[in-house]
Design brief:
Helices cover 51% and strands 0% of the residues. The protein has 6 helices and no strands.
């Protein structure tokens, strides 16, 4: 891989048929669209401080908040999983934790307060 100023690596070329069937071109494009901060956040899997309350919006982890933001836009679990580079089951697990922390029972109950919290901006 060629290097550029400040020692950063040049972007890798998009996958091709030569890379084999395990390369997901859609996920590749999505990954390239992430900001540096978003990419580093997912690489490091920042989970936030451990001294947060057990119930309320401030109790949500960064990963749970990311899921809530996408739920508030109407995204499906499959779409959320693809966007966050996790499995649909992981999205489901995050949602079950969010429901318990916020005292809601469904996506529709979650969406309105998420919008009120400004999470769709």
């Amino acid at each position: 891989m060629a290097t550029v100023a400040q020692g950063w690596a040049a972007p890798a070329p998009a996958p091709s048929e030569a890379d084999g069937p395990d390369i997901d071109a859609g996920a590749w494009r999505q990954g390239r669209e992430l900001t540096t901060e978003e990419a580093l956040g997912w690489i490091l899997r920042q989970r936030g401080p451990r001294d947060r309350p057990r119930h309320s919006w401030s109790s949500l982890t960064p990963a749970e908040l990311a899921v809530v933001k996408l739920v508030a836009t109407g995204a499906s679990s499959q779409a959320i999983a693809a966007r966050l580079f996790v499995s649909p089951r992981t999205v489901s697990t995050h949602l079950s934790h969010v429901y318990a922390k916020l005292g809601v029972a469904s996506r529709s109950e979650l969406a309105a307060p998420a919008v009120e919290q400004g999470l769709t901006r």
